[in-house]
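Proteins fold reproducibly. Consider a sample protein:
=====
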Amino acid sequence: MRGPLRALGAAAAVLAIGFTAACGDSGGVGGAEEAGQDKTKAGETVTLNYWTWFPPEATLKETIKDFEQANPRIKIKLREFEAADYQKQLPLALNGGQSLDIVGVQIAAMTNTVREQLRPVADWEKGLPAGWRDKLNPAMVKQTEQIAKDGKLYSVPMGSIGSAITLSNAKLLKELGIPFPKTAEELKAAVDKVKKAKPGVTPVVFTGEPYWQEEMLFTIAGQADPALSDDVFAGKRKWNDPALVQALKDYKSLFDKGIISKSVLSLKGSRPTELFTSGKAAFLVDGSWQSSLLSDSYRKANKIGLKDVGAGAFPVVQAGGKPAARGFAEGGLAVPKSSRHVAEATKFIEFMTLGAGVDTWSKDLVLVPAKNGFTPDKSVLTTGTAREGYAGVTELIGGEGSARNSNQSFLNQVEGNAILDVLRGQSSAEDAAERMQKEWASGRYENQ
């Protein structure tokens, strides 16, 4: 399972060890009668130690300020880390018994690393509103629960990310009379218009790095077979399954038909985003974490000259298919066993996942919030194009498609380059699929 650290790190652009607390498994939020917790006296101020990597510190401090104003007897002491460093530091702190009350959890990447030092949600959910699960996207809650090897829920999901989605230079499309493309044929017509009217603009860009090729392949595959990615990684179907071979062919057809230039495969790192934000690309294919570009205030703050940005599903390539994207719950909030203020920690988690806090931290648009019925503040999305685009992305990522799953070693060593070989005409789809299946069956790759 891969946590999208690279993606969130880019989107956010910011982002004494003595055993001091009893680690009883009883959890709960009942105060002094619970093992390992301090009794809060009437009128006493409680300070909660909160570690996380997301959202960006400025956004998080604004959210904490709102919480503290609504809960004057609870103070939050925040420590924020860069994503990669957080994966190292949190396990060390928890295993060393450091007293922490609330921790952010990178759901895919960290749950099984730290779960033994976390209180299962079942131990403290009585402090959440009745029926709280029904107030969150069921797919995100299910993913958060199922990722744990023991099948228990250890964190409450804040939101999800997914890929691939398409962002558009809406002003340019309007100028050229191009509707947002919903099919490969419509994308081809849009590309031809851009090439003719704006020869200095690359019609479609995305990163050519191997890791991204899986996102593209399974997005296209999911248009006709939404369960294919889940089934392949679960071992229920093979890498040379006819549906996957067809998806490889359909992906390559975008290059064969001139919809996407092979030169795009040479783009690395942030270069595709730079081309798009500078007006030198009409469409950017990336993950939902790039939804920040829909916000006029975000663009102004980051000196991005685009006047309006649209978003939607990657155009349907598969015959008879439907829009698709793989999604996965990304950020969760948990209560460590070392917390001595579980009731207060639970109140903060409720504010951040079910309450008014969502309206504040979500303004960066990096995660699609798990809270049902969420819509961004009107000050964030100021145009109809942006609002419609974000609504479409939210529906897409919160749907029932495959999980954004991966085997990092296999992806880096075999899969990504096998897909690239097909796109470059160096291998047939059938041969690439056979190669991937042979390597997958070798037993050399962990977590299969």
The first strand starts at residue 46 and ends at 52. The two ends are 9 Å apart (CA to CA). Residues 1-35 have pLDDT under 50 and may be disordered.
